[in-house]
Amino acid sequence: MSKLLSPKNGGFFITLAIESSCDETSAAVLKNGREVLSNIISSQIDVHKKFGGVVPEVASRKHVENIDMVIQEALDEAHVTLGDVDHIGVTYGPGLVGALLVGLSTAKAMAYATNTPLVGVNHIEGHICANYIEHRELKPPFLCLVVSGGHTHLVYVKDYGDYDILGRTRDDAVGEAFDKVARAMGLGYPGGPIIDDISKNGNEKAMTFPRIYLEKDQFDFSFSGLKSAVLNYLNSQKQKDIPIKVEDVAASFQAAVIEVLVNKTIKAAKLKAVDTIVVAGGVAANSQLREVLKEEGEKEGFCIKYPSTKLCTDNAAMIGCAAYYNYLNGLISDLYLNAIPNLKLGESR
What we know:
The protein is of the alpha/beta class and 349 residues long. It has helices spanning 45-49, 56-78, 97-114, 123-134, 174-184, 191-199, 224-239, 246-272, 287-299, 309-312, 316-328, and strands at residues 14-19, 24-31, 35-43, 87-93, 118-122, 142-147, 152-159, 162-168, 276-280, 303-305. 43% of the residues lie in helices and 18% in strands.
């Protein structure tokens, strides 16, 4: 363990992190896990918009094109060289396997060439750790609601790297449901920010879409039924040749999603007797979710925290923060580390 506590840089650790799990190519440099010296993100949103979603093969090719430049830009902006880096953190799952392999192969090659420790990071854990960057005072234990395009989890964070999953989606992730509903209304991609924006001009009580709570005292989620209810409504209106007010549909759908997320999150926080609730993942940028959770959570005496918008979406800074704590816990990966597209939170590498 002593070798882990010998940074090269006068008492502080320098982490180089790489993220390529989906359609953002990102590299970041951090000091002592929480201070971001650089966080470079090359987004592919404009590339995938015309397809209505992420095309895995296209994403992988774009990662190959961008990754070397992104890493170099991150090092340059942080004013460090590879010789200053104490460890290299990299996402190895969950995500698109081809996209993951680009970042992972690059990180392994750099670790081998420079004899630098490699630290594999679970992408979901990275989202949770984004809050450590945003809120320097934050320490476990706390409850985290992870909401993104591919994941919906309620996680009790007992300690750094120690997680108890209280609930997860049984079907669609919340961000996936947003994208599918937006596509059905012809709103474009990505659906989450678009629905959030147009909902501001809609009536959330115009339609009563179902709130799916599942079994009593159950913290799992299900959004496929709600999504189907919205699609059925849209089809019914079209068949009857009745005009659809997309702002009202969007607002009503979003209200149904947020009601379930907020109620289950607060209930779980009470169960675990924590005083802090944090939100993580791309959907954590949703303005209505932030507003409602803050209002309802503070009524119940909870402190509500969430990252800035840049740290909500996929980025390497959050991976670097998770890598730092993994490294301190002695979780160093070998060069046989492979991409695991369906990696679960808490699974060992």
